[in-house]
Amino acid sequence: MRIFDPHIHMTSRTTDDYLAMYDSGVRALVEPSFWLGQPRTSPASFYDYFDALLGWEPFRAAQYGIAHHCTLALNPKEAGDPRCAPVLDALPRYLVKDGVVAVGEIGYDSMTPAEDHALAAQLQLAADHGLPALVHTPHRDKLAGLRRTVDAVRESALPPERVLLDHLNETTVKEARDSGCWLGFSIYPDTKMDEDRMVAVLRAYGTEKVLVNSAADWGRSDPLKTRKVADAMLAAGFTSADVEQVLWANPVAFYGQSGRLQLDVPAPRSAHEGNSILRGGE
Ligand SMILES: [Zn+2]
Questions:
Q1: What is the whole-number distance in angstroms between the Cα of residue 167 and the centre of ligand 1?
Q2: Residue 164 DSSP label
Q3: Model confidence over 55-101: pLDDT tens digits?
């Protein structure tokens, strides 16, 4: 079984996680840019982070046989912070880079006017750069957040087939599907969606345009949730072709719209800009 995790924050994970993910079948992933768990105090903090997602993290992933791509954006949590607003003007010089397969994650956190502005501006950036967009939907007040998100997409120049609405659940899946966007589900250990609920959603809505991710970060999360959903699908009677569609072909089709997916893992190099993942050198 081969697995593509379309949303996972590897910068917060260990090399043991890369090893376990490879052993579970993960061969490709997309790491969206997000916040740090605490507010950034200047735009420069974003640029070092973007560079890490384009350089150091793909280097680390390749050591474990996993193809790494990223999405870059001013994230929803910080979109309303005036200290971070200059990031919007700097994004064009990052969005042209080969490792970037979408603008993201963008979207609403508290649904403020500043977030409206950042979302609209970044949907436009995606359209201008020929990239799809990964759109986070809010964890609070989910259905109102989904509706406002779909309205923002409709008002944008980006067609719905280039938009992935993420963090969906049973309350938002129907309207999200009716929007024509791709459907993303984040599977967590003890809150929000779990693998059995995911299987029920797949039974009700089918496998078309559905992506499943672990969204793992430094919070309570599990980087093997993609594999656990695959196993739960098989146990529930889905075929291995269904599993392949949800866990591989759908993410490849969605991010492939960027024209930049490189699924052959680059040969591992011993160092990135002079730094290795070994302790104390060879
Ligand atoms: Zn995320």
A1: 9
A2: E
A3: 999 999 999 999 999 999 999 999 999 999 999 999 999 999 999 99
pTM: 0.96
Cα–Cα distance measured from residue 17 to residue 187, given in angstroms and rounded to the nearest whole number: 16
Distance 34 CA to ligand 1 centre (A): 6
Q: Which of 109, 164, 161 is nearest to 133 (CA)?
A: 164
H or E element in which residue 3 lies = strand 3-5
Tokens of 52: 């890490």
| DSSP one-letter code for 172 | T
Neighbours of 114 (CB within 10 A): 13
Distance 203 CA to ligand 1 centre (A): 25
Superfamily of domain 3-256: Metal-dependent hydrolases (3.20.20.140)
Cα(215) to ligand 1 centroid in Å equals: 5
